[in-house]
Design a protein that fits this description.
Blueprint (H helix, E strand, L loop, with lengths): L1 E6 L7 E3 L4 H10 L7 E3 L6 H12 L3 E5 L2 E5 L7 E2 L1 H4 L9 H8 L1 E5 L12 H9 L3 E5 L2 E5 L7 E3 L1 E2 L2 E2 L1 H12 L4 E5 L5 H13 L2 E3 L6 E4 L8 E2 L5 H13 L3 E5 L7 H9 L3 E5 L2 E5 L8 E3 L11 H8 L5 E5 L8 H8 L3 E5 L2 E5 L8 E3 L3 H13 L3 E5 L2 H6 L3 H7 L3 E6 L2
Parallel strand pairs: 2-17, 3-16, 6-7, 10-13, 20-21, 24-25
Antiparallel strand pairs: 1-25, 1-26, 3-5, 4-5, 7-9, 8-9, 11-12, 13-15, 14-15, 17-19, 18-19, 21-23, 22-23
Helix pairs in contact: 1-2, 1-7, 4-6, 5-6, 6-7, 8-10, 8-12, 10-12, 11-12
The chain binds ligand EPZ.
Length: about 425
């Protein structure tokens, strides 16, 4: 297993380009199951969740060719329809194959994902959506068995007790794209990744209106075709890099991003005293003093993203006062707080809120990554800490960031990947 060894307090400088979005690319890859024609996806991020999705598609019998940053996917008529536990248990986003398999073949058998380090992650809204479209669902031996002779469009709400669901909205959109008649989703997720999937499906010939709003209309079509597509840039990676600059008191340029996807994040960075100079597809960010304290509530898009909560917490450990972060999407997503405390942070958790009393320094320590974004938070803290930080279990980081260590090293960080004995 690899670990990252970071010598803190190095200033960063220069320019870094954001990779393609993991969370946009994953459902797009699954959507390729909707046609027997080849789909070419460009500028895919090279990270392990993408490889896991490629393995899952290949395990179904799909032809998958990865060539650097391009992937070609061709799902012939004779592919299988079972997503096995061995793969689904590695990555929850595997359940994105449910909707496309059901729509194309009238059946899907997908392992239930099971536990997750960031707290309970039910799939009831995905199942509800498929049932509304006419599927019969049975849960047996840890698998979701879904069958439908023909999916039929209908009206449904996908808003759960925690608000809209990105995954359920995407799954239903893919299934409904090939259903008979019209589907109306209310309470739909508005995340840019949902819009990107709708654009991809549109490029395949689907008829979808309203993506990016809580009301999406899908006019089912009989056939979808292959296409070429480039997913959106990764807004969470962009935010993580911005914090790398802020936490080290540096100035860097981040290029290749979509500023319109980052409004809530930029607003928070400015509240904390960062200077953000945004232009077209890039931003220059700097922070010349300790960050000001702030209050953050995670919320569905366009609110502040839960996927940047841990990284902002790392930055707020060094602020000049007391901050509060309230996690409204995944209430138990705070495992990083205890590791940050081992580096000298003062964070206490009260229910779904973290109270962060700013300290004037962090000190390097051996820390352990517990999930993807928590790992990123520990790396960021390591960049700012005095002395050496070792972040172990960084396979979590590699699931969702393309060469974050290499990108940071190019900006001047003293960060090294070494093999853990
Ligand atoms: C997506 O997960 C992302 N994953 C997550 O990113 C992200 O944190 C999350 O959206 C929220 O933005 C991918 O895109 C692969 P949800 P998803 O369904 O779709 C509840 C990362 O670090 N819910 O929008 O699984 C759920 O428990 C990952 O990159 C139900 O109650 O999230 C949560 O409270 C982690 N029933 C809320 O809805 C359901 O059937 C939002 O979850 C589904 C979800």
């Amino acid at each position: 297993m690899d670990k990252l060894v970071i010598k803190g307090k190095k200033r960063l400088s220069g320019s870094v380009r954001v990779s393609g979005s993991k969370n946009a690319t994953l459902p797009i890859m699954a959507a390729c199951l909707l046609t027997d024609q080849p789909c070419r996806i460009k500028n895919i991020p090279e990270l392990s969740d993408i490889k896991t999705m490629a393995s899952l598609l290949a395990a179904l019998g799909t032809k998958v060719e990865i060539n650097g940053k391009e992937i070609l996917i061709k799902a012939n008529d004779d592919i299988g329809f079972e997503a096995p536990y061995e793969i689904v248990s590695q990555m929850r986003a595997s359940y994105y194959v449910l909707g496309p398999l059901l729509a194309r073949f009238g059946q899907a058998k997908v392992s239930l994902p099971g536990g997750c380090a960031i707290g309970p992650r039910p799939v009831d809204l995905h199942l509800k959506g498929m049932e509304h479209l006419g599927a019969q669902i049975n849960i047996e031996h840890g698998y979701i068995n879904a069958r439908a002779s023909k999916l039929t469009g209908t009206e449904m709400t996908l808003e759960g007790i925690k608000g809209p669901s990105v995954g359920a909205t995407a799954n239903v959109m893919m299934a409904a794209a090939k259903a008979k008649g019209n589907t109306v989703i209310t309470g739909a997720a508005c995340e840019p990744e949902v819009v990107d999937l709708a654009n991809f499906l549109g490029a395949m010939g689907a008829k979808i209106e309203g993506a990016g709003t809580p009301l999406i209309k899908i006019h089912g079509v009989n056939e979808l075709s292959g296409c070429e597509y480039e997913p959106i840039p990764d807004r969470i990676e962009a935010g993580t890099l911005a914090i790398a600059a802020a936490i080290t008191g540096s100035e860097i340029e981040i290029t290749g991003l979509r500023l319109d996807h980052m409004k809530a994040v930029i607003e928070q960075l400015e509240t904390m005293g960062c200077k953000v100079n945004a232009q077209n597809d890039s931003l220059r960010i700097s922070l010349a003093r300790r960050p000001a304290p702030t209050e953050i509530f995670t919320a569905p898009y366009p609110g502040f993203p839960t996927d940047l909560q841990a990284q902002f917490m790392a930055l707020l450990t060094l602020s000049t006062g007391t901050s509060v972060i309230t996690e409204n999407i995944f209430e138990a997503r705070f495992l990083h707080a205890l590791e940050l405390n081992r580096m000298g942070a003062k964070i206490s958790i009260k229910g779904n809120s973290a109270v962060i009393e700013g300290v004037d320094k962090l000190s390097g320590a051996q820390v352990m990554a517990s999930d993807l974004r928590a790992s990123a938070a520990l790396v960021l803290a390591g960049l700012a800490a005095e002395g050496e930080t070792e972040v172990s279990r960084i396979y979590h980081l590699d699931r969702g960031y393309e060469n974050l260590d290499v990108k940071l090293a190019k900006l001047g960080a003293a960060i090294q990947r070494v093999q853990d004995e």
